[in-house]
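Q: Give me the 3D complex with protoporphyrin IX containing FE.
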Amino acid sequence: MAPNGDAICPMHADFDPLSPTFLADPFAVLASLPRDVPVFYAPLIGYYVVTRYADIEAIFLDHETYSAAAAQLPLVPVAQEAAQILSAGGTTAQPSMVSLDPPAHTRLRSPTARAFTPQRVARMAPRIRAILDQLLDAIDPAAPFDLVDRLTFPLPATVIFSFLGLPERDWQQLKQWCGHRASFTFGRPTPAEQMHHAENMTAYRGYLRTFVARRQSTRDDTFTSALLEIHAKEPEALTQEEIASILYSLTFAGHETTNYLIGNMLRRLLEEPARWDAVAGDPALIGGAVDETLRYDTSVPMWRRVAQRSVTLGGVELPKGAKLLLWLAASGRDAAAFPEPEIFDLRRTGMSKTLSFGKGIHYCLGAALGKLEAQLALEALTLRFPRLRLVEGQALEFHPNVSFRGPQALWVRPA
Ligand code: HEM
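A: Here is the predicted complex, encoded as structure tokens.
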């Protein structure tokens, strides 16, 4: 007990969100933890883990106490050589809006938010449907296929890269760079791997800078050109470097999150064939399937903050500088927020309160777009393949990182 009466933080010496056991089934690990310990210290990663809905919500809503600076901090210490590569390439540990606090955050968020109003996102529906048709037309309906490879990965990548106006010939390269960034920031790379990732991240950032500079003279109707329009009118309101930083956010945030959301949704529906059949038979359930996946098996299961002062959270005392791992996926299984949380319920109500997209000043800018992509994908897939089934006996694999989770492959057979 601390002198002021607050409890000293409990500790779980072997909690490791990158261990094979955790990656295979984080919910089994969650279920094994004592329910009455909402905050605990995990020495293997040096983070305080927060599991309760109410505490995570309070953290998101108090950006002065809980800075976003840890959001993209590499999880493991950065080797000196890797840090040198990054700084020589003009990249830092807080490279984009999601890890900035106001006022720097506001400068980037305001112009970006204009592109993601609900009306603008709704106008993207015909284009998303056209991409889906193309992807589904290319599938042989008589043979098993991998949903990730054929649908869940290419759909959001195509949507976001074409929205930004990035040339199709570079998409494959961009996907690879994003993979390096995910491993560097959210995984546990060795020093040699860090150097390799850092080189790729530097190339990625450099590519975006060059892209923005080139687009300066050849504008079109893409989002990048809209940002350059702002820059042209008032160069100090939004610099070219800031535009490159916004692209660095969106190229990354706009595809793995949604790829994994759609992958998790299809997995959860197909693992109980009656669920799939229910949705295929009643499209009114599609919105519920997306929302319930965001609660039950979200694609961004953990997010981070750092305490700016010593503070009491969930009854425990946290020191200034405490790094916090907000277990968003656990907040979706919190019975105080969602009754009978272990049941996947397509008809559950009150879902707007999910914390899967964060809350407060950093609330996910792409929430409406990600949900729309997932809904349209499910609509198209259930229409084409109403009797879809999982290929039996496959072991699902997950990328070893703390923040983005979804199957790397999901094999199905058309009927
Ligand atoms: C569909 C699945 C998605 C999930 C589960 C998700 C989740 C999140 C989360 C947890 C945050 C951090 C919130 C915080 O720090 O308070 C976030 C921020 C953000 N997301 Fe998403 N996201 C998704 C899709 C997208 C898409 C499709 C885009 C872009 C097109 C996007 C763009 C962003 C941006 C730009 C931010 C930073 C906002 C800021 O710092 O102000 N996200 N998202």
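A quick observation: The first strand starts at residue 39 and ends at 42.
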